[in-house]
Each structure stands twice: as C-alpha cells, then as structure tokens.
Write a structure and sequence with these properties.
This protein is of the alpha+beta class. The protein has 14 helices and 28 strands. The strands form 6 sheets. An 8-stranded mixed β-sheet has the order 3-16-18-17-19-22-20-21, sandwiched between helices. The protein has an 8-stranded mixed β-sheet with strand order 6-5-14-8-11-12-13-7. The longest helix has 20 residues, at 487-506.
C-alpha cells in the first residue's frame, strides 16, 4: 500500500522483507512466554539487521524501520494520527554538511613567503564551519577557552576582531595524563569544538584554525579530523573553520622564536593562558560548505480509551533511530560499519511494539487514551520527542504520564533501573510493588531528567517513568548486535510494563507532578558559570535562543523571562544560537548583574537579571 503526500513524499511504503516478517507475525498469536519471545526476536532481527542499516538518520534503513513499525500499528488496528501523513509525524532538521568544490588555504610570511597548503595533507575543512573568503592577520589564542570555573580566558588582552585565530584542541594537561586544571579533562564543556568557535565568533574573529594538542597528536600521528566527523552539527558556526597540522602552526611560530609544544607546556606548568599575535603572518582562505535539510518522522499509533478518563493520555515511547554507519556519537571512531543498535534502541522499540499488540487486543478498554510513539532523532539530541512536545497530537495539559523504554535488552542479575520514581506522588511505592511481583531488583532514580526521550516530557511538567537495563562494552559500537540481547528479559520487562501502564491508564486521581532536581553523578563535570534558569527549544532554527520554559525561582523567572521569548543578546553580546548562549553565560559568575534582550512578539524587551 502506498499513499502520497505532496510535501513529504510517500507516507509509507512496505518492502517485501517487511511484509514477509509481518505476515509471519500475524500468524503468531498467544501470550505464552515462548510465543512472545519469538515475536520479539523477529522484530529485533529486522530492526537490528542489515536492511535497516543501523537506523541512522542519514540512511535509507531508518525509513525501512519506520515503514515496519507503521505497518504493524496498522495491522493491529491502532488509529493513525492524520489522513495526510498516516502514522507519521514528519519534522525537518539540519542535515549533514557537504564539502563544496572550492577550498584553499595560503600562508603569507613576514619576508614575502607564500605557502599554498593542500587539503587532506596540510589541512581539512571543519564541517560545522561556514562558507567564506578571509584574509587576515593571525593570533594564537591557546585553547580558546573562556571560563569562570576554573578562571581562564584565552582571549583576554588580545584583539581578534577580523583576524584568524589558532586554537588548540582539548584542554591544558600535565604529563599527557589527566587534566590538572579543568575537572573532567576532555569531557569538560570548555573542550567542545563548537564552544571554542563560539568564543571566537563572539569576539568577531574572521576564521578559526584548529590544531591538535600534544597528547592527541602523539596518539593519532597528528591526524586531521575527517570532514564527515565534524559535519553533523545542527548549529553551524557563523565563520569558516579549518583543522591544520601542527607543522603549519610551527612554521609561523618559528619566525618569532616560539614552538607550539613549548607554549602548551608553559600553559600546563603555569596554569595561565599564553595568547599573542603571530606578527608578520597572514592567512588567506576560502571554504565552501553546503548544507541540506532532512525529514525525520516519529511513528505514532493511538488506542482510544473509554469512560470518564478517555480524554486524557498516557504516552508509551521509545526511540527507534541509532547511529547508522557511525554517525555522531559513535564510540568506534574511524570505523565505518553498521552500528546495529540491538540494545540501543531496538530493544526498547520492540518492547513498545509488543505492548501495543497486547493493549490492541483489549476491546472496550476503560481508562485513558494510549499513544504509542516511536521517536526519531533521539541520538542527535532528543529531536523527535522534543518535536512531539512542541507539536503534540493530544494536549500536553491532558497527558497524565509518559513511560519510556530505552536500552532494555541487557537484563543481568535481575537488575532493572527505573527513572522517574519521584516524579509523581505514589510512583515510588507503585514501582516497589511491581518490581517485587515480577522478580526484579529495582534501582530507583527519582529524577525525570536524563539522556533519553522521557526528559522532554518531564521538562513540560509531565510525570515520567524510564526503564533501563544498563550500559555495556558494546554501547554505540557496531558490536551491539541481536545475539547479545536477553530476549526473555525484554519479555519480562514488557510484562511489568503492561501492568504498570494498565494501572496508570485508570489511576485516580491523575498522577500529580512533583519537581525533582537531577542530582550530580559522582565525578560529573560541573556546569560552567552560573545558570539563568531557562529551558531552550532545541527544535527552533531561527537566530537567537527560543525559551521553551522558565524554571520557577531562578534568575530568569525573577527577571521576567517568559515562555516564547527569544533571547538575542546578553550583556551587549549577540546570541545567535544555543552554543553562543552557553559561551556567553560561561563568562559570568554568581552575583553578576546582566541585561538580557529578548524578542517578545514584535517588540524587543530588555530585562535585568542577577545571576546566582
């Protein structure tokens, strides 16, 4: 069956392989353990098989997975969400950048030297940079860091406006070991490439040249970052960015009596920046970076309820996307191979699909509406769940709870982690009782925040649960395959999930939301700088930072920020995107008073906030 939509193209098209699997599933009925596990395994083998290509957002395989899920929802009799798009909720995101035909990099020396450098040999274009043509003087700005915790500013005392800045990757280190200055080392937020570029852009630099630090160069023989590795950003920089070999920078430094390695050693030894202009040198460059948008789609099926609670909703969700052949987030860097994602998150996807089968069998079921959602784009920043929360099919104010399944395929020693046990009154005791009944050792996490789709709902003040069986050595690698999955464990989690959802669908009064702070994990890297207290909208692609929500009793709330405001300037500094916002905020400390300029409707409003 094929339906056509003028805007988004085919709504869904079922391949022969999908039909074959679904026909087999259609013949399998019953609730005995062996039958259920055969169904789950059949789903897993397709979704985490070669044909779905790791379900990466840049692959055709993710559409095959979406077709499979939509076809099964239709077979089960769940309602589609739209006559136009069927079971799909499409949304657009910035796609992968492509390198254009025109790239060049030249060095002009103090004695009239002219060096033409070769791409892939001496330099590589960084994919999240922009197209541009620049000729400017050169300034070395160390690691490109601006931070209050710890205090460090590589841009202090140097003028970079209109100039090309040279920035080391990562952070100051001692003896190639752990970072002595920045907690968390390379995991510290100040190490992020995009944050460093944002720091340069805020100071009106014309272009950025990245260079490997000493430990990284020793580790990878001063390898240049592949364009593809840096091309998947959803927030392109506003200036050209390149990655150059250390020998390129050392050639310029030598004329003024410096060496890159000596400068790094001094920064680590003295715990202070070593920034200065590289006098006499100019860089001339041209980059061409092309970007496109891609359409992703959540897959959604609806089972209506009956009775006085039928107008309220329970969302049951899992993300079905993964990392394709090694998209951003892969821990097997440099390996171009299918990342099958059997546990992450084919396991959660098949659990939700099995739950849909079970509830679809219940005729005239009393209670709340059940909405089954398979999210796309989770691996790239919870894109699908954020899109749904910004464009809900059913009102969020009437959504009672969201239950999320992400990585539930590795049950070991009966240990099951459940997030969100503190997000509504009574949830803690409910999970205790169900865990005991189903034989699990439950590890309870009260908070509703975390790196999966439930966080999008909890951020909108909806109680949540999230089921998780833990990480493992195959996480985000090609070795996360079906043969490593505990299929019986998934079936048992589904059994418990079914009972939980049945309870939530009829619970009266409706679960009452409770705000729970997300505790810092031992050894976690602290956030840089003070927090304003907003929740940004990550789906928005217009200039500025769109405020999704304002946290009560925070500087943002006291300053009068409102949901729907667009922050465009802080303390006189432009805020073109979320990366720039974070870079600006990192330059302040608790107690600072700042002016925030927002667009509110057609007006610009200036607000005063005192940070803490």
């Amino acid at each position: 069956m094929r339906a056509q939509n003028k805007r988004f193209g085919p709504i869904w098209h079922v391949s022969a392989a999908v039909l074959a699997v679904l026909c087999c599933l259609a013949l399998v009925t019953g609730r005995d353990a062996a039958t259920v596990e055969r169904r789950i395994l059949a789903d897993l083998k397709f979704l985490a098989g070669d044909e779905c290509e790791g379900r990466g957002i840049f692959t055709k395989g993710i559409n095959r997975a979406a077709d499979y899920l939509a076809a099964e929802l239709q077979r089960l009799g769940l309602k589609p969400i739209s006559q136009e798009t069927g079971y799909f909720q499409p949304f657009r995101v910035v796609g992968q950048a492509k390198i254009g035909p025109t790239q060049r990099l030249l060095l002009h020396g103090p004695q009239g030297q002219r060096f033409t450098l070769e791409r892939d040999t001496h330099y590589q274009v960084v994919g999240f940079g922009s197209s541009g043509q620049v000729k400017g003087e050169v300034v070395f700005v160390g690691f490109g860091v601006v931070s209050n915790q710890p205090a460090w500013d590589d841009f202090a005392g140097v003028d970079v406006a209109g100039k090309v800045v040279v920035i080391l990757r990562r952070l100051p280190r001692v003896d190639h070991g752990e970072a002595a200055i920045f907690p968390g080392g390379s995991n510290h937020p100040a190490a992020a490439l995009q944050t460093k570029v944002a720091n340069a852009a805020l100071r009106k630099a014309a272009a950025v040249l990245f260079v490997n630090d000493v430990p990284l160069a020793a580790q990878n023989k001063d390898e240049l970052m592949p364009f593809e590795y840096t091309s998947q950003s959803r927030e392109p920089a506003s200036l050209p960015v390149l990655h150059v070999k250390r020998e390129v920078v050392d050639r310029m430094l030598a004329s003024i009596g410096h060496r890159l390695g000596d400068l790094e050693a001094a920064m680590s030894r003295e715990a202070r920046p070593q920034s200065f202009p590289i006098r006499g040198w100019q860089v001339e460059l041209q980059t061409e970076v092309e970007r496109e948008y891609i359409t992703l789609k959540n897959v959604i099926g609806v089972l209506e309820g009956n009775g006085p609670l039928a107008d309220e909703t329970v969302v049951i969700g899992a993300h079905y996307d993964h990392l394709g052949y090694g998209e951003r987030g892969s821990l097997a860097r440099g390996v171009k191979a299918i990342h099958y994602g059997a546990d992450d998150n084919a396991s959660g996807t098949v659990a939700v699909l099995e739950l849909a089968r079970r509830f679809a069998e219940m005729r005239d079921r009393q209670g709340r509406r059940l909405v089954f959602i398979f999210f796309s784009g989770e691996e790239q920043g919870l894109l699908g769940s954020r899109h749904y929360c910004n464009n809900p099919i059913f009102p969020l104010e009437k959504t009672a709870v969201m239950v999320n399944f992400d990585m539930v395929g590795r049950l070991r020693d009966e240990k099951l982690t459940v997030y969100g046990t503190g997000t509504a009154k009574g949830f803690d005791k409910l999970i205790d009782a169900l865990g005991k009944k189903h034989g699990f050792q439950i590890r309870k996490v009260p908070s509703g925040f975390g790196p999966s789709d439930h966080a999008s709902f909890y951020g909108r003040k909806i109680p949540v649960f999230h089921f998780f069986t833990g990480t493992h050595a195959q996480y985000h690698r090609p070795t996360d395959t079906v043969d490593t999955i505990n299929v019986a464990g998934i079936r048992r989690i589904v059994d418990m999930g079914e009972e939980l959802i049945a309870s939530l669908s009829t619970m009266q009064p409706r679960p009452e939301y409770v705000a729970v702070a997300s505790p810092a994990k031992p050894g976690a890297t602290p956030l840089r700088g003070p927090r304003l207290g907003i929740m940004p909208n990550y789906d928005d692609d217009k200039p500025g930072v769109l405020v999704e929500d304002v946290v009560p009793d925070t500087p943002a709330a006291k300053a009068g920020l409102q949901r729907g405001d667009r922050i465009v300037e802080i303390a006189g500094k432009p805020v073109p995107n979320l990366t720039a916002y974070m870079a600006v905020m990192a330059s302040f400390k608790a107690g600072d008073k700042i002016e925030i300029t927002v667009e509110r409707g057609e007006k610009k409003v200036k607000l005063q906030a005192e940070l803490r």
